[in-house]
Amino acid sequence: MVNGSPTLxxxxxxxxxxxxxxxxxxxxxxxxxxxxxxxxxxxxxxxxCGKSTLLRCFxxxxxxxxxxxxxxxxxxxxxxxxxxxxxxxxMLRRRVGMVFQKWNPxxxxxxxxxxxxxxxxxxxxxxxxxxxxxxxxxxxxLWDDVKDRLRASAFGLSGGQQQRLCIARTIATKPDIxxxxxxxxxxxxxxxxxxxELLLELKREYTIVIVTHNLAxxxxxxxxxxxxxxxxxxxxxxxxxxxxxxxxxQTEEYVSGAFG
Amino acid sequence: xxNPEQLIRKGVHHAGLKExxxxxxxxxxxxxxxxxxxxxxxxxxxxxxxxxxxxxxxxVDIGFLTKETETLHVFDDASGAxxxxxxxxxxxxxxxxxADAVFNEQTxxxxxxxxxxxxxxxxxxxxxxxxxxxxxxxxxxxxxxxxAKQGRFINLVRLAILNLAGVPSIVFGLFGxxxxxxxAPIFTDNPAERTLFAIPLGFTYLSFxxxxxxxxxxxxxxxxxxxxxxxxxxxxxxxxxxQGFREASLALGATRWHTIRKCVLxxxxxxxxxxxxxxxxxxxxxxxxxxxxxxxxAKGLPSLNPYTAMTSQVQALPYHIxxxxxxxxxxxxxxxxQYGSVFVFLMMIFLFSTVSIILRQRVxxxxxx
Lengths: 260, 369
What we know:
The complex is a heterodimer of chains A (260) and B (369). Chain A is of the alpha/beta class and 260 residues long. Chain A has a single domain (13-255), classed as P-loop containing nucleotide triphosphate hydrolases (Rossmann fold). Chain A has helices at residues 51-58, 89-95, 110-120, 126-139, 143-146, 159-172, 189-202, 215-221, 239-244, 249-255; strands at 13-22, 25-35, 40-44, 68-77, 80-81, 96-99, 177-181, 207-211, 224-229, 232-238. In chain A, the strands form two sheets. Chain A has a six-stranded mixed beta sheet with strand order 6-7-8-3-9-10, sandwiched between helices. In chain A, helix 3 (110-120) runs parallel beside helix 6. Chain B has three domains: 15-60; 68-113, no CATH class; 116-366, MetI-like fold, CATH 1.10.3720.10. Chain B has helices spanning 14-52, 62-66, 87-97, 116-147, 152-164, 169-181, 215-240, 243-251, 256-285, 288-291, 306-311, 317-326, 335-366, and strands at residues 69-76, 82-86, 103-113, 185-188, 198-200, 205-208.
């Protein structure tokens, strides 16, 4: 274990023999892996390999896609099977936050964007909202840039700032796990660097799963890496080992840039 | 470059001639359409403006817009001078001068007084129908685009709704007559004899005997007619809201309804409303749907009591125009009412369309993501 002695706590996310279909087409084949708490796990692999699909299973946001369905296996989050019929899906999504590839702040003010999640869950106190908004904006290092224009539209921010705002919005509801679907793929290198610094900062409190096309990013900031290819999990191990000494030939070819 | 002279044209320029011919043909057709439209519009203005616009202040014939419709009486007095006045003035005049003073009397129905009744009636019909249509239409659009399981069946439903938009308005009129006028349910203590069936509720009856020709029946019929347009336009506006907003909201733990209420509808509403104004213009302009369900040729102004107003018939501009044009003999004395009504009506529709187009452009430039 990278963080010292093995822990007895259940893994943040445990996937067991997961099969997943879009209509007739099977896109995930018998995926099994465990994602430990308070670490960054990177999902890498060529486009269409199913890594985003798997990520979107973790908060069941795939439910809204017609024809998408889990056809076998199960996903347990903190030991709870998330497919059980009595699952409180709103609570699941509150505890498992998600940041999307294309930053998608609401066309509302910066303040309202962050307060949105809290208001959903019934927070009305102005004081609590104010504090939480400031805290979240500080966490993503955006506070100093926007503290004078909290009421201005979020669309006035730069791309990198908008993405960080989305991360702030996600942590506002106090999740345990943050899922990130290629959060930097549309950002310039400097903004990417800022988001990566933020990830390293956030992993002290949150379990982070990040899908990325950027191998350098995976090697820079993740603790564990999982390599997917054509809907199968090829290799899952410590990031260092994965990039220096992969045990499967396909992984080696991919991380060395032979294909993908 | 070899042969640079190639760049210089020699002889007849065939390609250029062809271009010119095509441009001339297309342009000619376009300007032809514009010419015909202007001709129609000009003709209405030519006759309508004198009926409504006056050379001296306040420049508009206020009476024509604010008075009730009356029968026009035309007659000679003892000195042979020709008079034309609406019924109320005529009776006052006759009382003052005696019935013997009236010679060669002619009457023209609906041609005297003003058109306040039709204007108000059309306004009420249109507003009420748009409220009904928006309520049902937006609800259906939300269901279709946000809740319904997308697939062949829902596409079939969509197709059916789209086809409904092409149903002739007279068919909607007959449908409204059969359903709202004759068969819609009302609460009543004494069910009419012709009721389809009456459900006893203990204290009263729910009787399926229809609403009779009335403002509400007409508005409901018009609403059915514009529903397909509103549903389709609303669905388009809803779909124009990026999926990212929905996913972000759901991913924060919002319910579907909360997401729709806070993250979808507010951004779709401007689009829904502006396209609805266009169907407002259509609802205001239709004659056939209200012929059997709401409109009447002569009637006082709508009652101030909402219940009475809802359950009584109204005058309406398109129907008034039809009545004036088709059911009374035309003469120089009826022209003021005829052309004036058409002109006012055209201006009303024009106003609706212009406002909606301006609104839409404004909203479009404002809502970008």
